[in-house]
Amino acid sequence: MLATETEAVPDRNVRILLVEDDDVDREKIRRFLGQYSRPHSLSEAISLGEASTEIRRSGYDCIILDFRLGDGSGTDLIPFIQEVLGRECPIIMVTGMGSETSAVEAMREGVFDYLPKAGLDRRKLHQALDNSLRWSEMQRQLTAAEQRLRRQSLYDGLTGLPNRNLFFDRLEHACAAFARDRAGFAVLMMDLNRFKEVNDTLGHAAGDEVLREVARRLSPLLRQSDTLARLGGDEFAAILPGAGNAEIASHLAGRLSAALHVPMTVAGKRLVVGMSVGVAFCPNHGTDANQLMSRADRAMYQSKRRMLSVVIDAGSDEAPAPSSQVVIGQIEQAMLRRELVLHYQPKVDLVSGEVVGLEALVRWNRGPGDVVRPADFLPAVEQSRLLDFFTYHTLELALRQAREWLDAGNGTPVAVNLSARMLERETLERDVLDLFERYAVPHGLVSFEITETALLVNVPAAREAVRRLGEHGIAFSIDDFGAGYASFSYLRDFRVREIKMDRTFISSISAGSFDAVLLRSVAVLCAALGIRVVAEGIEDLACRDVLAAEGCRYGQGYAIARPMPAGDLPAWSARWKAEFRSANRDS
Ligand code: C2E
Ligand code: MG
Ligand code: MG
């Protein structure tokens, strides 16, 4: 996770290189730097040639670079600086009259900031230095976090199956989903029989081949929504959503175990490796990951001891939760009956009060006064074949609404939540573009929000989908930012326009708190990348000033507006404007 600000900019000596050919300008900048409060040392170069020799000779923490030099343009030096000092070495450009446009261009090449020489003063220079050093420290942390992430990567190198990390992550998700939608599931622990013998007699290469073959045989027997993982050694495990009762689960477990009854040929030998399977259910055997794993583990050992292939842990035998199939059937009907509707929650500019967008949130109007929130059906939908239908249905509702507003002269942008799993669909790009076209809605008007934790699972496919839709001008926002881990890498991996800070940060924010410092660090990074930062879950407008001061200019939450039917928006908007005006007058 992020460090606090004091850690973010260590108080060590900052090595600055000033590349400037104009004697007067150089003298001025030198003077300003003389009053810089951080310990630093300054070297100077007056040409590109001199600068490159200097950069190669010793390391620097920051380069102040004149745009126009006697022997070429400062921008020519950027690739060289990045190659020798790394991309995290911040470059601040100073520009004379008329080179501002090119300087902005240069920022795209990786320049951190630019300062026009006209009007340059001590304060501006010091501030640019402070920001750039903070940014560079953050880049360093980002690289370290990514390396960590790669190390503990999510898949098993041998079989290509999810590894222990990803398995537990999914299991925890399944438990959290159970807490919301009460859809039970089964956990299977599997252990190969006599695997040690294979290793001992045929060697490790043969052992590896057996493990790969086991994965090849088991995978096709499971559905896309199931998770099969290799936990290590000869231990495999599975999560089977929707298999919330003993009958379905033991049937499946039996099929898995039977798949290994057919002999395999390894190292020229035909052999049969059996497997012991232990089964536990959520909620009968537990509702948290550890409980479930230990019960499945216990059942697995019983199965080994009793030489049975499948044992279901003899826990309490309460009736399992109603299957999510029931919910799915009802939602399908609800869509056909047009009972799914969108409510809209405004995102506002916390400084001006202006409404900058509306987030569409799905509701199921089950009957008069009976409104069902997405948490009660979405998890089941996301694990079912209904997800595509549901996604395009809700997107269509949003596009139709956007069209209606456009016709009435209102072009407020709308954001639609997209289940991350949709990013793996090959036809997503085509289907989405078709819908935009059908309603003749400009691509910039409707964007997608995707949650950060969900992105983790299939990064390459997700990045590709985000990039492709982005090329068509359809923007993405990362939802619940900060709720997961390694969040920073997403900012680089995914071209997003907006991040929404998770409400856990926002609810407790106060000036000077750790969350406030964290928010500011994120805001600095986002500002450099041109990403808008929105605070979600604002329940008390008192934090508005703190948020704005930390660089988080936009917000959303009950204190501003609850999600509401489209028809309620005009009345809310009038009330909000009046309230905002009077609150600003009072403060
Ligand atoms: P989200 O996208 O993070 O949406 C914010 C959720 O927080 C909404 O709940 C909203 O009503 C609630 N919220 C807003 N302001 C506040 C606040 O100040 N305090 C508190 N405590 N809560 C606040 P909702 O509408 O129940 O949606 C829950 C989640 O369901 C959404 O989280 C989103 O991930 C998902 N979702 C909603 N609609 C759709 C949809 O059409 N498609 C997909 N795929 N997911 C959706
Ligand atoms: Mg959202
Ligand atoms: Mg959110």
Question: Explain this structure to me?
Answer:
There is one protein chain. The chain contains 22 helices and 24 strands. Helix content is 45%, strand content 21%. The chain folds into 3 domains: 14-153, 3-Layer(aba) Sandwich (Rossmann fold), CATH 3.40.50.2300; 164-321, Reverse transcriptase/Diguanylate cyclase domain (Alpha-Beta Plaits, 2-Layer Sandwich); 325-582, TIM Barrel (Alpha-Beta Barrel). Mean pLDDT is 86; it is low at 1-8 and 315-323. With 587 residues, it is an alpha/beta fold. Strands 15-16-18-19-20-21-22-23 form an 8-stranded mixed β-barrel. Strands 2-1-3-6-7 form a 5-stranded parallel sheet, with helices on both faces. Strands 9-10-8-13-14 form a 5-stranded mixed sheet, with helices on both faces. The structure holds ligand C2E and magnesium ion (MG) (2 copies).
Whole-number count of domains: 3
Largest sheet: 8 strands, mixed, barrel
- Shape summary: globular
Structural class: alpha/beta
CATH topology of the largest domain: TIM Barrel
Summed over residues and divided by their number, the pLDDT gives a mean of: 86
Q: Please tally the helical runs, counting DSSP H or I stretches of 4 or more residues.
A: 22
Structure ligands: ligand C2E, magnesium ion
Quaternary state of the chains: single chain
Radius of gyration: 29 Å
Spatial order of the strands in the main sheet? 15-16-18-19-20-21-22-23
> What is the CATH homology-level superfamily of the largest domain?
EAL domain
* Share in β-strands: 15-25%
Point out poorly predicted stretches: 1-8, 315-323
Query: What is the distance, rounded to the nearest whole angstrom, between the alpha carbons of the first and last residues?
Result: 36 Å
Question: Helical percent range?
Answer: 40-55%
Overall strand count: 24
CATH architect. name of the largest domain: Alpha-Beta Barrel
What is the CATH class of the largest domain?
Answer: Alpha Beta
